[in-house]
Amino acid sequence: MKTLNLKTMIKPTKFSPVAAVATTACLLSLTAPSVNAAGITNGSTLMLFLECNNDGIFQVADDNLVVNGWQYATDAKNDNTDGNLYDIGGMAFMEKDGEVFVGITGGTSLEGEGYDRKADDIFYGDLFFTPAGVNFQQAMETGKLYGIHFTGSQDSAADSGLGVYKNVAAKGVGVQNFGHSSHKNYANIVDPDGEIDNFFGDLGLENDYFDKSKGYNTIAAGTKVENDGFEMLNASDLNNLGFDVNQFGGGSEHTFGFKFDLNALFPPREPQDIGVLEGIAGEAGVPFDENWGEEIAEYDQNITDFQNEADEQQGIATAKQQEADYYQGIQTQAEAERRKIQNQEINPRNKENKNAIKTSPGASGYLEAKAVRDRLNNLDKQVNNAQKVIDNNPRKIAQAERERDTAQRALNAIPSEENYLANKIENADESIKNAYAVVEDLTPQKEAWEQYKEERGYDAPWKWNNATDEVKLSVQQDFSDAGGEWVEIRQDGSVSKQEQELETFSQIVEDFETNALNQRRQAINSDQKTGNRRNSNINRYQQEITNAEGKKEELNGQIADIRNNGKNNLLSELNALKQNAENALNNLDSSTPEGQEREQFYNGEIAELEEQIKYVNNNSLDDTLNYLGNSGNRNGYYKKQLATAIKLDDRPVLDGNGQPEVYILDDFQVGKFTYNNEGERTATTKTETIQPREYYYDNRGRLKSRPVDLVGQPKTVASEYLRRAAESSIYNNVKDDNSEGGLKKISNDAKTAKKNALSEKQAALNAKKVALAEKEKQIKAKNERLLTIEDAIVAEQNQIIMAQRLKETEKAEAQEQALEEQYGVRTENNIIPTTPEEVEVLNRIPQVEDDENRVMTPEPGSIAGLLAVGLALVGGKFRKKS
Q1: What sign does the CA torsion over 720, 722, 723, 729 have?
Q2: Is the pLDDT of residue 638 over 50?
């Protein structure tokens, strides 16, 4: 691969934008928003003509035509004069991330083609942009015409360098470039009947956008936009951006482009203060309407009023939030008190009563039956869990096998290192392929050089390294004289360009191959790990099934044992409990109150156990467990017998000395807590006296209760159970008291008040939001008005500026007209010169007049034309530049 020298490609006496084209591909994302989403709206127009007006194209923005971010305009093929060197193939633009990208393809190169009357190259003209809603002439007269200068043209007045220009006045330089003085002249030669739809790209011959009698193609005057972000792009850059020449039916010989910031066309605008605008108007010498200041002052007053309203509503919202916080504190305090009553007063009494039931006669048998029932339920649950494993794991195994097989197929599909690398190289981007091409091109040259050094006696690196630069350069020159193409060091001893290129691109190739092989190894490792993990999972799932089957069998054995022997075992336990009670009864000293209480308990215990034994003997195990061991069964032993018997249990309650306790009035006095309006417990309590009651069976066997006076009477298990239940009920009423001053009402009222305060707060915030929205509307309206005022001032200012700049347009038109009068109207037989000698000859061709007294350049077939051609041949043979 030869290294191209740009100096041999560009004329040294002329500016060329090629030097500005980035040679490294821009690796940009190809996803882009709609072309016209932000700045370039539908109806905006781009216009580009060659300086000779031999071809031109217009593109009208339409986001319905966007393809992968780009909008394309295709120019008619061969709709030009003077051959394909002056044929524009097409143009496209893309707006993305605040930048505008333009791509152009055609027969004309960036370095220019042919020669104009000054023997300078003929370039593309400047690209013109007009916003939607105005035609070319309107945009130019009102300062809305933009021009993008992107070539080395000597005819354009864009003298501040490449980039975007504003407040542009356009001119035509067609005759100066041996071309057409107007677009009409060009069209009359190529498409006189107007039959080509895309003669001007998106526009046909007949349109309202431009005046065909003009030949505008370059900037006559304009102001360079600072910091416009302009940058030239080559074909590779455009390709990386998604630009597709196939949208034009294929690219022309030359494809290039450029980009610039969207802000260059649509700079962000900040409204200026009215005083600043008045100063601008004064400096520009344009009128300033005094009513404008009054309008802005009214907006300012409205803005202040709405802000005051918003501040007032914010004050209300803040106060309501404080109010809500206050009520939240009350609610929190009241709920804390309710929990305190539940935990400190109600729960302990309820727990004590439950314990009383579980220690009453017959409760031991209930607990034995409950233990058997709980054991069976637990075993059934474990069996169900084991069965789930047995049912679900085969599906898990099948899924793991599929994933393992998929990983194995992927592993088998990974190519060998050689084939993997070949595939990676084939699908690599152009930069990698270029690196391989460079290495492939340079390596044989380098190897030939190394072989030459060995033949000269430098067969070891140290020998060459120890040689002086003078010796090395001498050997290197001998190699070159012998036809070698390698340079290792420069005259100053530094490393040559070839060495640097080979080292750089060899490193790129090495890194690429290392990364590729690492990816291959990672893929292999990943697939192997997946396969190993899935095999491990399969083994684990299978082992879980085996374990579950064994566990299930074991559990079913335990269940079967309980069901086969549970009834007998329960009977044994109940009989043992009965025997223990009988033994304890026989060993009692019934002469003491404590002995008498125990005697009464054991007699009841024995009687209950006998009934339980009888029930077990007469019923199945399941019925027994459901009746005797299920506390949730409404008709079961716990609820029908134990919970009822406790209310009739007349066993005495003994004190620490074993003596019966006797009730006093205080035993039935309950201190009820009182609370202030904030839910805090006060020092005052209200006393409520419990009315003792006793349970009995009436003559019809129904359980009834009646009031009884127990003061001075001995305490019994039943009376204490009922007293604790009554106290618990009183405290529960205190906790849930929803009457005035009650704890629950305090909590609920605070909750409601908090809700109302928050609602009023939200209403205030909504009102604030409305006020701020109205304020923003006023600000927006004010800013829009300031911008329209600025627009009015700028429009007046632009009229002054453009009036002066349009004189440059008129001057250029006069120059073109003078040239046309001197050299004649462009015809299809005229030729654009390709050498300076031809320019000189054509500039000396005499004038003739046609039948309509129009000045014409003589055609080659005429006597004058033959003379002109002959003179041209003396100066040099006609040729086209490549």
Answers
A1: positive
A2: yes
Residue with tokens 């140290």: 462
pLDDT per residue as tens digits for the range 861-877? 333 444 444 444 443 33
Element (H, E) at 89: strand 88-96
- Grouping H, G, I as helix, E, B as strand and the rest as coil, residue 122 is strand
Q: Mean pLDDT for the chain?
A: 88
Sole residue written with tokens 């003929």: 122
How confident is the model over 396-423, as a mean pLDDT?
Answer: 95
Site of tokens 């200026």: 272
What are the beta bridge partners of residue 681? 675
Residue 779 has pLDDT above 60, yes or no: yes
pLDDT at 75: 87
SS3 284: helix
Tokens representing 331 are: 């609610």
- Measure the CA–CA gap between 874 and 115, rounded to whole angstroms: 18
Residue 80 has a pLDDT of 78
The string of DSSP letters for 795-821 reads HHHHHHHHHHHHHHHHHHHHHHHHHHH
3-state SS assignment for residue 182: coil
**Cα torsion through 598, 599, 600, 604, rounded to 10:** 100
- DSSP type of residue 123: -
Site of tokens 């007699």: 603
- Span 268-297, pLDDT tens digits: 888 999 999 989 898 888 899 989 999 999
Q: What are the tokens at 479? A: 């190699």
Our CA dihedral for 20, 22, 28, 32, rounded to 10 degrees, sits at 30
Strand partners for 163: 149
Cα→Cα distances 700→408, 697, 703, 704, Å: 84, 7, 9, 10
What's the length of the chain?
A: 882
Q: What is the dihedral of CA 271, 274, 277, 281, to 10 degrees?
A: 150
Tokens of 744: 């629950």
Burial of 425 (0-12, 13-18, 19+ CB in 10 A): middle
Q: Running DSSP on this structure, what letter comes out for residue 602?
A: H
Whole-angstrom distance, CA of residue 55 vs CA of residue 88: 6
Do 278 and 293 meet the contact criterion of CB atoms below 8 Å apart? Answer: yes
Under 8 Å between Cβ of 841 and 868: yes
Its pTM stands at 0.54
pLDDT at 671 over 70: yes
pLDDT score recorded for residue 294: 93
Is 806 buried (19+), middle (13-18) or exposed (0-12) by CB count in 10 A? middle
> Does the pLDDT of residue 13 top 50, yes or no?
no
Measuring CA to CA, how many Å separate 609 from each of 8, 141, 574, 578? 120, 116, 6, 6
The pLDDT of residue 845 is 61
- In this structure, of 139-148, 154-163, 182-191, 234-243, the range with the lowest mean pLDDT score is 182-191
